[in-house]
Amino acid sequence: MTPPKTNGKAIASMVLGILSVMILYIGFILGILAIIFAALSFKELKRGYEQGKGMAIAGLVCGIIGVLLWGLILLFVVLAVAFFGSDIDSSTLYDVMSTVPRVKTA
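Predicted structure:
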């Protein structure tokens, strides 16, 4: 008798969940995909004779952590730009750039 195969969506959920915590900028999207794949794999695991419940749980947990982590970072950046973005004066930037020595070209 052959052992039951591992659910592919559970594997995808775990991989996407781990990547969502580690990869910048697209980690939020990868986390959402990990949560979706985990939900789909839970439905398939209830019906069939496949393995992978632990991988689906790991993908779900990592996906949630990734979404929360990158969501909070995105919220922090948006709030920082909203509060401190208007304080930057364009003349200050011009003054800083005018002190940079010019390079002579041939």
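Summary: The longest helix spans residues 53-84.
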